[in-house]
Design a protein that fits this description.
The complex is a heterotrimer of chains A (988), B (470) and C (231). Chain A has 988 residues and is α/β, with parallel strands linked by helices. Chain A contains 32 helices and 40 strands. The chains are: A alpha/beta (988), B mainly alpha (470), C mainly alpha (231).
């Protein structure tokens, strides 16, 4: 610990810019000497969200009744019933979950998952170990997809202008509307879908188009891979699908790509990246360069990060292309950087990859293809296949056509299958006002949303857990989507609706999918193949074959239009969690802290500290963004590491008809997004409104320096002195406690978290929430610092606020052996278990909160109100039956998923054996894409966790307190390029 | 006995000259009759002064508000407070510690000074004890009201249950239960026992049958027989003996709530003496805040003389200095520990978001009390009242500072957050004050606020020694 | 001394009329002791009530949609527990018989009995029978049948002589102390695995020795950590 002399206090309130990185300070506001953040929005606490009033009433009544029962010490149970099956299905063992393989289609691309089912209720999503896009892990959206299924605000019935109608009525109306259209070979019939990769759905659409040749099919996905498509057209003259094999990549250059956290393949990429990063006893690491236009999790993870404006990324790409091609780039904009990166790439040609961001310009994609080709990466780390889409097309053009025809009034029947164009089409198309000009319009979606409001008909869409389908993964692997539960409401799949156009009344989705694949798979024993595919969750060897598209003559792309110096650049990105807005009503995703900002329930106007100063903008100030005649108001977020002169806004918020959770959360960046500026524009004006708008972040931006929770070092340091971690640690002797010692003779459960691997994606937090029935509390309570997530990912910055490096640290309960929480609890509500867990007995807790006060890690969460929803039936369906649903006034915390531990122990005991290594996976461990979290018995040295804990990088958080945490960390190693070492923390 | 002797005895007392520069414990010229009439008069004959009615109304209104808030908290949950994670304790515990502390003066005066044979205590001990009882009542409410599930507070008490689970005796909160309940029981007994002879006097002087019956029942048939007096004296002494250790123990145990934890700013060995001193400090402040107005309104100058004010003031000054000393010692120990968290805590306390509280405490508890070095501030009622009020506020602020500054920024920056009190927090605090005032007003109205028989003892000829100066 | 006692008496209070009758003292004493007694009594009563069958619903035969008699099926016909409680060895939940299982026999036997109409109806309509739960643990308690049954804890330890119950009732209190009794001293209750489903089993005289042996043999632990039951 630092001695008095050189102790530099946390200068919480004094401005200390120049000496900044010698101290660690709390928040940016405080760093700049302004009032400490976090304490302005208070009214929150006095009043719960108004929308919840009725619920609260019920809850408090319930609480009162608890009160009475408590006072009389009454344990008398109300009469309950057991309702057995009439004719039990095979393999169902009541009290034991079943797992089914299926796939989650996100924006058309599939992620293979196993879904846990309790007596027919899907309760938890896990990764499918055999599926290429999952390898057993899941991303955040997969974890949260259950909340979509059970969302109480889902559309429940077919409606015409809002009035309930029957399926038959809809078919009749459709038939009538199609009468004239059929006569004209389908002219006037338009089908608008999102990006379609589902073979059977494609087949149905094609069938319709075949039957009605003059009908037209449009695709529009607001956050789709538009640039990638046009990029490959630029480079190869035709659209191709690109993906990466990062397990072969020693050097990775991310051109504004957040590939570790966002995108349909991120789970796989993160796994490959981290596996490669930890090879050969951790002395053989890959290296990651990130050139990016916003502070992303990938950038924070990178060994070298270069924050540049969106437009400059292209400049960099051009220079890099030249440098790789051997031309001199001296004196160019990024001279030192480009040359250094290029040298590094060339040194690893064949085992390196340049990854352009989904939302970067087509030129950048084209250049990336060019560079990868020059480096011989194609076929090694970069793989090309035929497009995954059934029909790869320029969706922007496709949508524009549709709107033009709507204008012309030549569209008679419009079927919108999924998507929400009224909300997310570029603002200048003015889709909302043109849509009603059709004679017949129907919208099929989970929610009756903005688009439904403009359509005549709305049909509830079946959730992927409710009906059959199929979809392709990033590499083309096909998965059959099999449902786990009958539709909760009167909903239908696209397949059935399309089929109805051809042959009334339309077959079931199951028949359609199965029939389609019977056609594909004639000859082979179909039944066995079909069953196997269902069981495995994907079709064997269905990945698309590699292709080697010929590179067109390297046309040196022109530099982007130089924006006028004063002008601000605006960059649109899909939100990392609610994506393009489709998950806006998913309470889990809304409340899940965003990777870097830890923001919940809102998007923000991201702006760099310097630019904020220049414009005189404070944090959390309501500003108006103007482009042309369009404007939108949002709250500012001052983001360290964000490039100057640029503003990043996330899409997907500001919904008006998403449901109770999504409505009014954040602002809609689509309002200033136009056809010519899908991803960025240089004509943004920003105006102060004088108002402020609080943003609910679960933690402020904290810097670390000197004595701090994160221990990290460079690879070279580690090579030189593998013990640098141990040496920086001070651990008191074990016997330094007045309480008797436990001898952990049996199992001793422990956890190891590898900071080198953690990419801050948040999958673990989402998984924890889903597994442990963790309540969602709403923005007001988050502002009041009463979030309930058991697991948090602390994000620390280091270095100046221009380009700090970032460190991520997942913090679950440490399960201390000398637990400060245990001995202060007056009622034994939290007590030590024989295997060393800190058991939390909710039903014993009286709520003194002393345990939380005394917890140095502050991992305990308290039910200040009755946060848990005890009334909504659909939410009850989701709950994990093995975990108590906590009531008002009790403490709760991470238990290492003790329900899973005890279950496994019981199974082991029944078969007279010990629990095997890896048999117990905590929810966070199972979800983690990078396998950063490992859980097991530390008493058994053959266990992986025990081996990890014996590694030299192993350290305990706040070890000097002698809490003896069972959760320990592996210090972070980074692999900077010596050439860039000194500039890695500064602008290029 | 023939009345003549008594007359004579009394005249003797008048002839005795008032010795010494020290102001007398009670003003000269008092007789049994005058004292008895004066004190019993407040209850039986005289009309209550306006201030009493004011206090009564104030108490009633705030108590109703208290009741409302308490109901609301039962109904909605402790989320109504400003507390969160990390600041899990806020106003409730602050108020608890504050009230308990205030209670201390009572025990000190009644028990400690009795054993010390300090005669001057006789005219203040009665309402000091009353003050104690009501303060502990207020205090006792908060630990329960701050529970997440207050309706099962009794799980903190060991009792044979069907779970075969008992409270955890390693937790200081369980010690609190015992400390506080013992304290309350003992204070109540002491207070009541002391009142019995006076209740008898009231019974005898009462005109209305109802009053006679009321006080008659209340004094359990006291007839002033010498047997009664002997038993009474023994009992008082025994209780005093039992109560004296409590002066030290109660707040020591309360301070354990903090010292037992591992938080920088809580985990400190100086706390027990520090808290006890602080308790007596605030206790005497409260005694004066109550005594001075009463003295003025009820014209008790003859019984509550400068001597009393002076002594209380001196005790405040002394305990105040102890408190000040701990303020000095805390930063030193944290610096000496070399523990960066400790040092950060001290630094953050003085410069962080709660610096105002810290400097407020220094001003109220250290700076201003120094005025008590000047005699005029010790005996001039108005000035003394002002200082005492300031100290009361300062001591509340001190507990607030200890609790909040230690919690809001502990070990990991990622879990830091600021505490801001809500309407509920304040309503509950003021509610408890209102309840206190109400109880006290009722006490002043219905019970002898000054111990008649003990004051009578102070009369020159009431003891063989004949001296009244002790 | 004389003076002392003299001065304490207010001179004007020497002669006064009686306010209370002579009974007052007795009443006073009675109230004093009576109060103490009343408090004690109230506490005792409270303790008794929470332990009483009223609270625990112990030995209270429960109404069922079909008056199913274990006495007849188990005691009389000698049907094994597992015939109906199919998952008792494999799952936390012992399971109640699906209507189909009832009908296996009752499609022939008592096929027309009015008492069995709900069963037949359920079989016809496919709507389940809602049986009243007899052993109802609080929702925060997690009990697992399989591990108990597999480790030599007999059904009758908790469910009593089901074979003597015309209508099923809760044979034990199900209080936490009752659970802990066994969890603290499993050796007192364990029986050979072969005897688990034997309703009539009585612990032998040498239970102490036998218990210790079985506990060792079956690797039974005394599990008293909170999370063994509360999660």
């Amino acid at each position: 610990m630092s001695a008095p002399a050189n102790f530099v206090p946390v200068s919480a309130l004094r401005p200390a810019p120049e000496a900044a990185d010698r101290r660690y300070w709390r928040t940016l506001e405080e760093y700049e000497g302004r009032a400490p953040g976090g304490d302005e929005p208070r009214q929150a606490i006095d009043e719960p969200p108004p929308s919840e009033e009725s619920r609260r009433k019920f809850l408090s009544l319930m609480a009162a009744s608890f009160g009475l029962s408590g006072l009389t010490g009454c344990t008398r149970q109300p009469t309950e019933f057991i309702v057995p099956y009439v004719d039990p299905p095979e393999q169902v063992i009541p009290g034991r979950p079943q797992f089914f393989a299926t796939a989650i289609p996100l924006n058309g691309l599939a992620q293979g998952v196993l879904v846990e089912s309790h007596l027919g209720r899907p309760t938890k999503v896990e990764g499918n170990p055999d599926h290429p896009a999952s390898l057993g892990a899941t991303d955040v959206t997969s974890q949260a997809s259950l909340m979509d299924l059970y969302d109480p605000d889902r559309a429940r019935e077919i409606t015409l202008h809002g009035d309930p109608r029957s399926w038959e009525a809809f078919l009749r109306a459709l038939l009538v509307a199609l009468e004239p259209v059929r006569a004209r070979k389908g002219e006037g019939l338009r089908i608008l879908t999102e990006t379609v990769t589902s073979p059977s759905l494609g087949d149905r659409i094609q069938a319709v188009l075949a039957a009605l040749p003059s009908a037209r099919w449009h695709q529009w996905g607001p956050a789709g891979c538009h640039s990638a498509r046009s990029g490959s057209v630029l480079a190869f003259g035709r659209p191709v699908n690109t993906y990466y094999r990062l397990d072969n990549a020693d050097v990775i250059v991310a051109l504004d790509s957040d590939f570790l956290c966002c995108g349909p393949a991120s789970t796989r990429y993160a796994r490959d990246y981290s596996t490669r990063r930890r090879r050969g006893g951790r002395v053989d690491m890959n290296r990651l360069y990130a050139i990016e236009s916003a502070m992303t999790a990938t950038g924070g993870k990178a060994d070298h990060r270069l924050p540049v404006r969106y437009a400059e990324v292209e400049t960099f790409a051009v220079e890099l292309a030249q440098a790789v091609a051997g031309q001199s780039v001296a004196g160019s904009h990024f001279g030192q950087w480009t040359s250094a990166v290029a040298r590094d790439l060339l040194a690893h040609s064949g085992s390196c990859a340049v990854i352009p961001g989904e939302h970067q310009s087509p030129a950048v994609h084209a250049l990336a293809h060019q560079i990868n080709a020059a480096l011989g990466a194609v076929g090694q780390t970069v793989v090309y296949t035929e497009p995954l889409e059934v029909r790869a097309e320029d969706q922007m053009a496709s949508l524009t056509d549709l709107v033009r025809d709507l204008d012309a009034g030549t569209v008679e029947v419009l079927l919108i299958l999924g998507g929400n164009p009224v909300y997310n089409a570029p603002a200048d198309l003015d889709f909302a006002h043109k849509l009603p000009r059709t004679a017949f319009s129907a919208h099929v979606a989970l929610h009756a949303d903005e688009t439904s409001a403009q359509c005549q008909w709305h049909l509830p869409e079946s959730h992927f857990l409710e009906d059959w389908g199929d979809a392709r993964a990033f590499d083309g692997t096909v998965s059959i989507i099999q449902p786990l539960i009958l539709p909760l409401y009167e909903s239908h799949s696209y397949l059935r609706i399309l089929d109805a156009i051809l042959t009334l009344p339309g077959r079931s989705a199951y028949e359609i999918v199965r029939e389609y694949w019977t056609k594909q798979k004639h000859g082979a024993d179909f039944e066995t193949w079909w069953r196997k595919s269902l069981h495995d969750g994907f079709m064997e060897a269905s990945a698309l074959a590699d292709i080697r598209p010929a590179l067109k003559a390297a046309n040196a792309p022109s530099l982007p239009p130089p924006s006028s110096p004063g002008a601000l650049e605006v960059v649109f990105r899909p939100d990392p969690y609610i994506f393009d807005g489709r998950f806006a009503n998913n309470i889990w995703l809304e409340e899940l802290p965003r990777p870097m900002t830890k923001l919940t329930w809102d998007n923000a106007v991201m702006i760099s500290p310097a630019t904020a100063k220049r414009l005189g903008i404070e944090a959390q100030e309501l500003v108006e963004l103007r482009r042309g005649g369009r404007s939108v108001r949002g709250s500012t977020w001052i983001q360290p590491g964000h490039p100057d002169g640029s503003i990043t806004v996330h899409l997907g918020f500001g919904r008006t008809r998403s449901g109770r959770a999504g409505n009014g959360a954040g602002f809609s960046a689509y309002l200033i997004r136009t056809v010519d500026a899908l991803w960025s524009a240089y004509d943004l004006e920003i105006h102060k409104t004088g108002d402020s708008y609080p943003l609910a972040s679960t933690q402020m931006q904290q810097w670390v320096e000197g004595h701090h929770p994160i221990i990290s070092g460079n690879l070279d340091e580690y090579r030189a002195n593998p013990n640098f971690v141990k040496e920086s640690q001070e651990t008191p002797p074990r016997e330094l406690t007045i309480y008797p010692h436990w001898d952990y003779s049996g199992y001793a459960w422990g956890m190891s978290i590898d900071l080198t691997a953690c990419v801050n994606c948040g999958a673990c937090v989402a998984a924890c929430q889903a597994e442990n029935n963790i309540a969602v509390v709403g923005k007001e309570q988050i502002l009041a610092r009463r979030g309930m997530h058991w697991l948090r990912i602390d994000t620390y910055y280091q270095g100046g606020d221009v380009n700090p490096s970032a460190y991520y640290q997942p913090v679950p309960c440490m399960q201390c052996e000398n637990a400060p929480c245990e001995y202060v609890c007056p009622v034994h509500a939290t007590a030590h278990s024989a295997d060393g867990l800190n058991d939390m007995t909710y039903n014993r807790c009286v709520g003194t909160r002393y345990c939380s006060n005394n917890c140095p890690y502050k991992v305990r969460r308290f039910n200040f109100f009755l946060f848990q929803d005890w009334v909504t039936d659909t939410l009850k369906l989701q709950r994990n039956p093995d975990v108590s649903v906590r009531s008002r006034g009790v403490m709760e915390k991470c238990t290492y998923c003790v329900q899973r531990i005890r279950e496994a122990e019981i199974h082991a005991r029944v078969d007279d054996r010990f629990v095997r290594d890896g048999e117990i996976q905590t929810a966070c461990m199972q979800a983690c894409p990078t396998q950063a979290i490992v859980f097991g018995d530390i008493n058994n040295l053959s266990n992986r966790v025990a081996q990890l804990k014996s590694e030299k990088l192993n350290y305990a958080l706040l070890a000097e307190l002698n809490t003896r945490p069972r959760t320990t960390y592996l210090a972070e190693l980074r692999n900077p390029n010596p050439e860039l070492g000194e500039v890695s923390h500064a602008r290029g | 006995m023939p009345a003549g002797n008594v007359q004579e005895l009394q005249s003797r007392s008048q002839r005795r000259p008032d010795p010494g520069s020290v102001p007398a414990v009670i003003a000269p010229g008092q007789t049994f009759t005058s004292i008895t009439d004066q004190i019993s008069g407040f209850i039986l004959t005289r009309k209550s002064p306006l201030l009493w009615w004011a206090a009564f109304a104030f108490g009633i209104i705030l108590s109703i508000n208290l009741l409302t808030i308490v109901t609301l908290i039962f109904y909605r949950g402790v989320g109504l407070y400003g507390i969160q994670i990390p600041v899990g304790w806020g106003f409730a515990i602050t108020n608890f510690v504050w009230w308990i502390g205030i209670g201390h003066a009572g025990t000190l005066i009644s028990a400690f000074l009795l054993l010390m044979n300090q005669g001057w205590r006789n005219s203040i001990n009665r309402f000091a004890e009353a003050m104690t009882i009501f303060a502990v009542m207020c205090a006792g409410m908060f630990p329960i009201m701050h529970l997440g599930r207050p309706w099962i507070f009794y799980w903190l008490i060991p009792y044979p249950n069907t779970m075969t689970v008992q409270p955890q005796f390693r937790s200081p909160l369980v010690w609190d239960i015992f400390a506080v309940s013992t304290y309350f029981t003992l204070s109540l007994l002491f207070w009541y026992l002391g009142m019995i002879p006076d209740l008898a006097t009231l019974r005898d002087k009462a005109k209305s049958r109802a009053a006679q019956r009321f006080y008659g029942i209340a004094c359990w048939g006291w007839r002033g027989a010498s047997l009664h007096w002997r038993l009474h004296e023994t009992a008082s002494l025994l209780l005093a003996g039992l109560a004296t250790p409590l002066v030290l123990s109660v707040h020591t145990v309360v301070s354990f709530d903090f010292t037992i934890s591992i938080l920088p700013g809580w985990h400190s060995t100086i706390f027990p003496p520090y808290f006890v001193a602080g308790a007596i400090f605030s206790g005497f402040a409260m005694v004066l805040v109550l005594a001075i107005p009463i003295r003025a309104v009820y014209g008790l100058g003859n019984l509550l003389t400068e001597r009393h004010l002076n002594n209380c003031a001196k005790l405040m000054l002394a305990t105040g200095l102890i408190v000040a000393y701990t303020y000095v010692i805390e930063p030193f120990t944290s610096w000496y520990s070399g523990d960066s968290f400790e040092m950060f805590m001290v630094h953050n306390r003085a410069t962080g978001p709660y610096a105002w509280a810290f400097w407020g405490v220094i001003a109220c508890n250290v700076a201003i009390p120094q005025l008590l070095w000047w005699r005029s501030f010790r005996i001039r009622p108005k000035r003394l009242f002002f200082i005492s009020a300031v100290i009361l506020y300062g001591m509340w602020l001190e507990r607030y500072m200890i609790i909040v500054t230690a919690l809001h920024r502990d070990f990991l920056p990622s879990s830091w957050a600021n505490f801001v009190a809500t309407v509920t927090d304040n309503a509950l605090l003021y509610g408890s004050i209102g309840f206190f005032v109400l109880m006290f007003a009722l006490f002043v109205r219905l019970l002898p606020m000054i111990s008649m028989y003990e004051v009578r003892e102070l009369l020159p000829f009431s003891s063989p020694a004949g001296g009244s100066e002790k | 001394m004389v003076i002392c006692s003299l001065v304490r008496i207010d001179p004007r209070v020497v002669q006064m009329a009686q306010i209370f009758s002579g009974a007052a003292n007795t009443i006073a004493r009675f109230t004093l002791w009576g109060f103490a007694a009343a408090v004690g009594l109230a506490m005792w009563a409270g303790a008794m009530i929470v332990r009483s069958p009223y609270e625990t619903r112990q030995e209270e035969p429960r109404e069922q949609p079909v008056p199913f008699s274990h006495e007849h099926h188990v005691g009389g016909l000698g049907i094994d527990c597992r015939y109906c409680h199919t998952t008792v060895e494999t799952s936390s939940f012992a399971n109640l018989p699906a209507t189909k299982i009832c009908m296996n026999c009752h499609s022939q036997m008592w096929a027309a009995s009015p008492a069995l109409e709900p069963v037949r109806e359920s079989y016809r309509t496919g709507r389940s029978i809602a049986w009243t739960r007899v052993y109802d643990l609080p929702d925060f308690v997690y009990f697992n049948h399989s591990v108990h049954v597999n480790k030599g804890i007999g059904c009758s330890e908790c469910h009593g002589r089901v074979d003597k119950m015309p209508l099923t009732w809760q044979a034990v209190s199900l209080e936490m102390q009752w659970c802990l009794d066994c969890h603290r001293h499993p050796e007192e209750r364990v029986r050979p695995q072969s005897e688990v489903f034997n309703m009539a089993y009585v612990h032998p005289r040498n239970q102490a020795a036998l218990g210790r042996r079985l506990v060792h043999e079956y690797g039974i632990q005394s599990l008293t950590s909170c999370s063994n039951c509360h999660r």
